[in-house]
Amino acid sequence: MKYYAIVLALLSCGSLCVAQPSQQISEDFKPSTLNQPGQEYPQVNSQGYARFKILAPQADSVRVSLGLRGRGGTKLSKGEDGSWMGTTAGPLDEGFHYYHIIVDGGKFNDPGALNFYGSVRWESGIEVPAHDQDFYALKDVPHGNVQQILFPSKSTHTSRRAFVYTPPGYDKNQSTRYPVLYLQHGWGEDETAWTNQGRANLIMDNMIAEGKIKPFIIVMTYGMTNEIKFGGLRNFDITPFQTVLVDELIPYVDANFRTIADQSHRAMAGLSMGGMETRTITINKPEFFSHYALMSGGVYKPEDIKDKSKVKLIFLSCGSKERPDGVKSATATLKEAGFNAVSYISEGTAHEFQTWRRSLYELAPLLFKN
Question: Which of 57, 68, 174, 289 is exposed most, by the fewest CB atoms within 10 A?
Answer without folding.
Answer: 174
